[in-house]
């Protein structure tokens, strides 16, 4: 990597991490007030409606991913006309998508009662739903411009804006919950901050990249448009697959188990969301650099960087998933009490699926940068079929409850993503898939050792729950997991590269 590419990646990572840590603390504060002022029922609504609009967002088809992929080369070549033309196509399509989501969202209004179970009738249910719909629709009219910051490796700009917006949103929402206990006002603030956050990003892009105004009416050529549409068809299948595998989990729990149980589960999802977002943001901050790398470097260089990024991602994921398993229930007890706990078996499955999901970050990023949209199409068709059949089997036949939903997700992941996504990258880099299984085997062994030692020290040797013991558990997680990984990989190129990046991070942070 060129020094500018490395520095951009580090800068993006620093800002992404800082923003997400702050957002985590603010979300925790808001959710704590939320639980004590509104209760479990509204927690269930949060999870349910968020997933409904994740599914409706499928109408985006993957156009954004395909267009961003198409931008890397013209950006590297300084072809402003083509970059502007691609962004104009993006803008037109997203406005159409926003309108379609509004129509589809409104069409679901008569069926809301069928998606909610185990709670009392709430008169304002439809108003709450419409506010969630508004929040989802508004974003499509501005958010497309953030893609320019990604392809120019300037994601740290949007991180700064998000930091300010999240702070303002959190403070106002806490005040509303404490003073009025009003969920409607709470959601109105969400809508306003989504709008202003996207507006500020849009205004910055217009100011920074003024050539976009010069080519405001530029059109994409027929060949480019044809290639994008071919990729979109494949990406759309991927989006459907992802929605079925992830977004429908909450729907299954709400419909077949209980919306109240979904509310308990959503507390853990908040923690998962924090871990997922921080880890993914740190890796996603490299997206622009990886796209530039593939556009200008040799395949040998690409594979070398891939292995290094994969190792960094593994380290983050191993630490995050093991720490979640150890710390989740002690934290829930101290935070909101034992009545909000889920069983250890459920926590283990959540942690396992967290690891399986996040370890894919590197593969997803490189496959997108390589443009492997069509190649992933068959896998994306098979994965949700396996997931849905397995989940319903475990829920309806074996009566496994939430564990059945989570186990269905794991089964679909291990039989498809676990081997096929790496296969495409190793094939592209002209490396045998045996090398992948060799590397992943060592990663799994490291996880077993680190996880086993941490569990023995934190759950068997330490009994009781207090904030002091909780912080002792945190220290043990930090020491045992990281020292185990260092012991296993201290002599590798990937480890030394990571240490070099850490030094650069410390230097740039001063």
Automatic annotation (TrEMBL):
Organism superkingdom: Bacteria
Keywords, in A-Z order: Cell membrane, Membrane, Transmembrane, Transmembrane helix
Transmembrane annotation, as ranges: 12-36, 48-72, 93-115, 127-143, 163-180, 186-207, 251-275, 311-334, 340-359, 385-411, 440-458, 470-489
Subcellular localization, as worded in the UniProt entry: Cell membrane
Location (main, coarse): membrane
Entry membrane topology: Multi-pass membrane protein
UniProt protein name: Sugar translocase
Organism listed in the record: Ligilactobacillus salivarius
Taxonomic path: Bacteria, Bacillati, Bacillota, Bacilli, Lactobacillales
